[in-house]
Prior knowledge:
The complex is a heterodimer.
Chain A: H1 10-36, H2 51-64, H3 67-75, H4 85-106, H5 115-118, H6 125-153, H7 161-184, H8 197-224, H9 230-261, H10 264-274, H11 284-302, H12 304-308, H13 310-335, H14 352-384
Helix pairs in contact in A: 1-14, 2-4, 2-7, 2-8, 2-13, 3-7, 4-6, 4-14, 6-7, 7-8, 8-9, 8-13, 9-11, 11-13
Chain B: H1 2-12, H2 16-24, H3 30-35, E1 52-57, H4 67-75, E2 91-95, H5 96-99, H6 110-114, E3 116-120, H7 128-132, E4 138-140, E5 146-148, H8 158-162, E6 169-170, E7 194-195, H9 201-204, H10 211-215, E8 221-225, H11 232-239, E9 255-258
Parallel strand pairs in B: 1-9
Antiparallel strand pairs in B: 1-8, 2-3, 4-5, 6-7
Residues 132-135, 137-138, 153-159, 194 of chain B line the site of one iron/sulfur cluster.
Amino acid sequence: MIEKALKGNRSYWIWIALLVSVIGIGLSVYNQQRWFGLTVTGMGRDISWGLYIAQFTFLVGVAASAVMVVLPYYLHNQKEFAKTVIIGEFMAVSATMMSMLFIMADMGRPDRILNIILYPNPRSIVFWDVLALSGYLIINLISGWAMLGAEKKGVAPSAWLKPLVYLSIPWAFSIHTVTAFLYAGMPGRHLWLTAVLAPRFLASAFAAGTALLILVSLVLKRSTGFDTGKEAREKLAILATYAGLANIFLLGMEFFTTFYSNVPAHKESLQYLYFGLEGKYQFVSLMWFSLISGVVSIAVLLFPALRRSTKWLIAACSFLVLSIWIDKGVGLIIGGFIPSPLEEIVEYNPTSTEILIALGIWGIGILLLTVLLKVTVAVKMETDS
Amino acid sequence: MMNEQRREFIKKTALGVLVGLGAASGLVPAFSLEKTVLPVWDEQPVPGKIRWGMLIDTRKCKEDCKQCMVACHHEHNVPDFRNKKEEIKWIWKNQYQQVFPTASQQFPGKETQERSYLALCNHCADSPCTRVCPTGATFKRWDGIVAMDYHRCIGCRFCMASCPYGSRSFNWQDPRTAIHDPVTTYPTREQGVVEKCNFCSDRLVKGQQPACIEACPEQALTFGDLNDPRSDIRLLLESNETMQRKPELGTKPSVFYII
Lengths: 385, 259
Ligand code: SF4
Ligand code: SF4
């Protein structure tokens, strides 16, 4: 089937060339990072995780959100998702891939990565996260690919596929819950030390991931003529809306508990992010932009007339994704380090090296997704005609 | 009394003179002592039997004195990048509200507020850093010391995120360029790994007190076995009002302070 990715029109190849060059730049810059060390990034003693871990967290969410199509389609027989399911699964594959690459990029000694398996520490959440992520990658790749293969041959999917797909549903919840536990179990990082972290991760993931899925399906329609269906997109938009609402609701819970109780340690990070602390405001405008664009895009999606219009749908979905990307990436990860354990407020600015490496990894993920979707569309078009 | 203490001390370091001699004569490479306890002493190490701890009498600590920090950083080849972002430190001084941010500070005495306080790894009895480390590169030794295996560390910096005291530093670049006066008795680290205070496990093994304790001209620091009710440190803890850093987090720091 993979040979189908090798046949494409001019714009397909231009797109591939563009991705390959972004990846190339990323790799060569990464080479510098390997050589000189993580000193080439904006991270430091106090803000010891930055852009990479932020992307990782966001992308695990995108990966988990495949469940938003898999669950209604397989468990509730929602037929309109028939064409979207596989796109969701392949998006999960590439997002998982990217999140793992971001972990690699963040490591001081990636040459020792096997130590996680050679000397496993089951008390460490990283151990479980590695298991969860690699399992999820494999499950989605196998089930997506096998479904597609069956479709191509015009036969019913093999019997073993069903249980695998069912397994992917709880697994999707688990990857993002475990990812939240990476942060939520640390004493002294009060922004993360909250029981709603995992639910908030899931809600924001289901909102952003589903919105992204809508955007991808629109791009596919535009570029290949393959349409997953307006009805499917509309249903997805509703799912994204409610997930987004849940996310904002949970953020509100966080605000109430923090500011009403007035416990200084719990308050400081949130205070810093949204209102500034001790005269330092690095992220205040960004966080408000995120909050307002999130609320407005959800409000737009709540109106049936607006979400049915493709233009409004695109705008609302894009801003929803951006809003959550800022909230989860910048706000949650960087914010968790401020103030530092020694009560210092340090600013963080990613360097161009860091940004180029991040873009390179996005390039790899998008290339993988492009190839998988190219095959998918070719097979679907063939069987349709 | 002091002599007995001293004998006790040497015995508890589990290797005592024997290995001290071995290391000195080059039979036992000093580096390997950092990681393993060799079974030369008849008494096998019993996990949890000994818990090394430190008491810092901040009243005795002189404001401008840096001797303990200099001794420690020299002894352990701690690099100095002269750059706050990539700073590496094992023991340092900070203000009261930085070291004890959760302690009462509404109406601090002038003197309390103006002094600075030593900070170092607390070798917590319930250490979050060892809990989160995915490879066991940060681990708890049988004698309560939270140790590091620099050769196993993958540089994920999880331990840094989880340490509520800022005790850990990462080698953002090759540290060897920033070690101004290297010693040969302790390994240097590589780029990309985390490091921190090791409670001088490299000296304990030779029957010596930690470098900071020895270097302090004011005898402000006391080191000893917290599990031994007859040790100096326990007697001092019992006869003084002391505090730990952020005790509310349940990490059970082994470093105590007299303010
Ligand atoms: S002070 Fe920090 S590094 Fe030291 S044992 Fe406690 S948690 Fe670990
Ligand atoms: S940076 Fe090294 S010591 Fe720290 S958690 Fe990761 S592997 Fe363990």
